[in-house]
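Lab notebook: predicted structure, single chain.

Context: the supervisor wants predicted structures on file for every construct in the current expression panel, including those that have not yet been purified. This is the next one on the list. No modifications to the sequence; it matches the entry in the shared construct table.
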Amino acid sequence: MYEALVEAYCDDDDNKNEAAKEPCKEKVSQPTPEEIRLQIEAANEMEAFWTTVLAGSVAAGAGYFAPGLLPAAVPYIPQLVPQYAR
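Prediction complete. Output recorded below exactly as produced.
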């Protein structure tokens, strides 16, 4: 049954009057070393991009919330600093 599927898939010619063609040879599709290197490079670039996006989001969030939180947090700073640091 599998051979019939391969033959039907590989016989892409619409002319049915010709003699039957040989089925396609099965190929093992493995990535080449160049393809693997390109995939690794793409993954590293995506990681760098999303790290930059995350850092920008953190900076934007800190810039947005700091003006409102800083005046409320100033009275508590002495309590947060240990006694030996004074």
